[in-house]
Amino acid sequence: MNINSYIDHTVLKPVTTLDDVKKLCMEAVEYSFAAVCIPPPFVKIAADMLGSTHIKVATVTGFPFGYSALEAKVAETVLAIVDGAHEIDMVANLLAIRNGDWAYLEKEIGTILPLVRSKGKVLKVIIESGILLEEEITKCCEIYGRYGVDFVKTSTGYAEKGATIEAVKLMRANLPANVKIKASGGIKTFEFAKALIEAGASRLGCSASIDIVKQANAI
């Protein structure tokens, strides 16, 4: 298994520095990761650094709580694309999910997805599976599967519970084949990363990426 190709090499802490992002990009090139995932203000710099490589630049919108106004998410998405992002990891409106306001959730994805697709970019929707009920996860999969988003993503990494094998299996069972899964949050070992891929994840969001690769190479 080429674990490197599954990894979005990630730094999203609120005190991220420019040096952190430059180091992340250089590591992504060295280890041939799938993408870097970084805070929005650094997208343009990362896009310039990685422009001649295959590595994608991903950033977040509505992060980390998801309850930003739809207009704010639209503005964040437009700016990210203008700055050079290839992939948008958008936090779904978790308040809408928890309150069963599925009409709002459909309005949100019905607004954002066409915008992303019109520019040929990728949309990953973060549902924060670790704090949702099983039926809420299933309903999210039904909605996002019907709209055909590129990925449904487990977690921001900021909730008390991140990715789990059980959540990935549940999502895979309730998503159409064309919608992929990104697992993120708490992935520290190659063993766990491999198990998540076997459960159905096609991408992994990791800050411990290099340790995971070293563990894989040691086997």
Automatic annotation (TrEMBL):
List the SMART domains hit by this protein, alphabetically: DeoC (SM01133)
Example GO molecular function term? deoxyribose-phosphate aldolase activity
Provide the reaction this enzyme catalyses.
2-deoxy-D-ribose 5-phosphate = D-glyceraldehyde 3-phosphate + acetaldehyde
Question: Which pathway does it take part in?
Answer: Carbohydrate degradation; 2-deoxy-D-ribose 1-phosphate degradation; D-glyceraldehyde 3-phosphate and acetaldehyde from 2-deoxy-alpha-D-ribose 1-phosphate: step 2/2
Q: Its principal location?
A: cytoplasm
Compartments, as annotated in UniProt = Cytoplasm
Q: Which InterPro entries match?
A: Aldolase_TIM, DeoC, DeoC/FbaB/LacD_aldolase, DeoC_typeI
Protein family per UniProt: Belongs to the DeoC/FbaB aldolase family. DeoC type 1 subfamily.
Q: What is this protein called?
A: Deoxyribose-phosphate aldolase
The record's gene field reads: deoC
